[in-house]
Design goal:
The structure is a homodimer. By secondary structure, chain A is α/β, with parallel strands linked by helices. Helix content of chain A is 44%, strand content 13%.
């Protein structure tokens, strides 16, 4: 079950080498997307799944091939374990043993526990294991939801341990890069703290808000708008998968939830002060300004003011503004790899067809297109996504031909 | 400052009448959108704003006209107070006094306090006041973000009091209907309880999650994905406006927040049980199934099982699934008034232009269009939004011409 030392195969003996054959274990959304993305690069992708039907569907979609006689002779250069988190470590250990020349990586969304278990159980084989976590997903799961560009422009975290072979890390890094991902190396604990904040905390918050709707009156939910829809979108996630993910990152997530609960308690105390049935009097109200500029006193200014409850609420929303401003890619849903060119489209029949025709004449490929329809205004705005290299050429050509391209 | 009794003007003396002249007080997002939406119906819209610049910008956008000599002779039939919530009641009372023949409505997002203050201060004039709340908004504010179709397909709550003139309610109802809104009548307290759940609770949750990002490391926020973006989108809202809104609905919102905190405390307790540094032992883990099917015992079944911590987490996400499924219009961002026709577009240059051309030949107007670009698959899907009446005709025509229109 273990080799006697580092025996890198020729295919991954140098940094930047790419795998000839990749075995994807688990042909769901992530596994099938890896196959769809690697196949056009000439990689031989073999698909395995505990469900033969899932593997067959992924193969039919073009994500790879099912195992055949070829695979009896030669093992894969790389095994990607893309299975549920609670079986990941066991599968990694098993495949390290089965293919003594292969590098093994995984895609589990928490890393410290998986890495620790592999190191403890795989012995010397562990030097061929590189922990990984592609930060990409969709609301839908399964191979039917797979996309070859799922990882384009997305972070792909690698968590090599001190004993990990640099050649193994280089092979996984090259594979992730071929899928268009932005490779980031973190130690497992830092990774887990980070995803507790940016992934698991929002999931719990979305589920908590959505759970409050159970039993609500039809007339109440009929008033729901885009805000509630956005906040609760990821509440549609799979309960079994997410219970595993949250449980696998219990301590870092609990830390974040305690901090959020402290802020919640402050918010609740402010609201209870403002409740006419609970408050001591109208003087308890305070003003918005108390919260926005009264948080700290200046040495040469007036004495520190204690924020009133309205100020506390304004401070919460303002802190939310500051946090929201840190979220990358906040101005649109198009992948950041595309440039977005806005074009004014007159509200006349044929305008959109004329625009599309013009872009075709210019020879620029439309990667994505969104139109905001706005009756009552004189023109709509079409947002045309193109590869960044084509952006300037398109803007120039459209402007020459009389289209209005706002800054 | 008050009339001696109900003196409906001719313009609103019967149900279904529409106002000839509407005075919009506050020319921001909502006020200017009302103007943009009403003008094409032949309504004379007069704009007023505490900021003359805001009023002038809204007028330039086509939302209405500034007051002139005409307005010295005749008052408006309807006054819409679209000002910040903390000055709404005072403005309603002032305009009821200034125009003794006019109906006055408002757009403030909480109703019980506004209605109570108007009734207390306006005396007999209060019969001409109809509380209102159009449930529509955007991340951006101000007249530049206004759209004539902002209210199309959206709920517009009216909260008439027992003493409100039926003719006044009918006039406001007709005005909201002309803007494409779905008019709903609720008593003020039910309205406030409902928006606490579907609007204010998600706002607080979004702000709480976003506020946690302040001070986070760059490497952590670099891992953020669409989930965090969606959950925190509305955290970009205006702090001053939202502090007023939340404070104005303190008691119903505090009630919802206490319920959410109870669920949060249960989640936190489960995570702390799973933390290896805190738990009594691995037996504390439990299984996912404990939560999903062990919530209640059956009379003729096995004894009630107590859910383990993993089961508690699965139960939270499953409850979130159930709540999420209640959110209306969850399958897309297009207004529900449009029908969405998905069309497979082959990944070849010119395919999209050919599709748009075909739709033009069929004579159907494209209201909205989205394309999902998916390299690695053989075709993309264009989602074409059209008016519902044109849907069947378009599907038939596209199918006849060889386009693939999946169900």
């Amino acid at each position: 079950m273990s080799t006697t030392g580092p025996v890198p195969s020729p295919a991954h003996s140098s940094a930047g080498a790419s795998p000839g054959t990749v075995l994807v274990v688990g042909a769901g959304l992530v596994g099938a997307s890896i196959g769809l993305g690697l196949r056009p690069t000439g990689t031989d992708v073999v698909l395995h799944d505990a469900s033969p039907t899932v593997a067959a569907v992924a193969a039919d979609l073009g994500a790879g091939r099912l195992p055949d006689r070829r695979d009896d002779d030669a093992g894969p250069d790389l095994v990607v374990v893309a299975a549920p988190p609670d079986v990941t470590a066991g599968l990694v250990v098993a495949y390290l043993g089965r293919y003594p020349d292969a590098v093994v990586t995984d895609v589990a969304s928490t890393k410290a526990a998986v890495v620790a278990e592999v190191v403890a159980r795989a012995g010397a084989d562990a030097h061929r294991y590189v922990g990984g976590h592609p930060m990409a997903g969709r609301e839908r799961s399964g191979p039917m939801a797979a996309r070859g560009d799922l990882f384009v422009g997305r972070p792909w975290v690698l968590t090599p341990a001190p004993g990990t072979s640099p050649a193994a890390t280089a092979l996984v890094r090259e594979t992730a890069a071929r899928l268009g991902a932005v490779v980031v190396e973190l130690d497992p604990a830092t990774h887990d703290d980070s995803v507790a904040l940016v992934s698991h905390l929002p999931q719990v918050a979305a589920s908590l808000v959505a759970a409050r709707l159970v039993g609500a009156s039809d007339s109440a939910v009929a008033l729901a708008g885009q805000g509630l829809r956005d906040v609760t979108r990821i509440a549609a996630s799979d309960p079994v998968l997410w219970a595993q993910i949250l449980a696998g990152n219990a301590a870092p997530l609990a830390h974040q939830l305690r901090l959020l609960r402290d802020d919640l308690d402050r918010t609740l105390a402010a609201l209870e002060q403002l409740d006419p049935d609970r408050a001591d009097g109208p003087a308890a109200g305070g003003t918005v300004a108390d919260g926005l500029d009264g948080g700290a006193g200046r040495a040469d200014g007036p004495p520190v003011r204690v924020a009133g409850p309205v100020g506390t609420l304004a401070r919460l929303v303002a802190d939310g503004n500051a946090g929201r401003a840190m979220v990358p890619g906040k101005h649109g849903s198009a992948p950041t790899v595309y440039a977005v060119v806005p074009v004014l489209v007159p509200d006349r029949p044929g305008s959109l067809a004329a625009l599309i025709g013009t872009i075709g004449e210019v020879g620029v490929n439309i990667e994505d297109l969104r139109i905001e329809h706005s009756p009552g205004r004189l023109a709509g705005v079409a947002e045309v996504s193109v590869v960044p290299a084509a952006r300037d050429r398109l803007v120039e050509a459209l402007t020459e031909r009389g289209w209005s391209v706002p800054d």
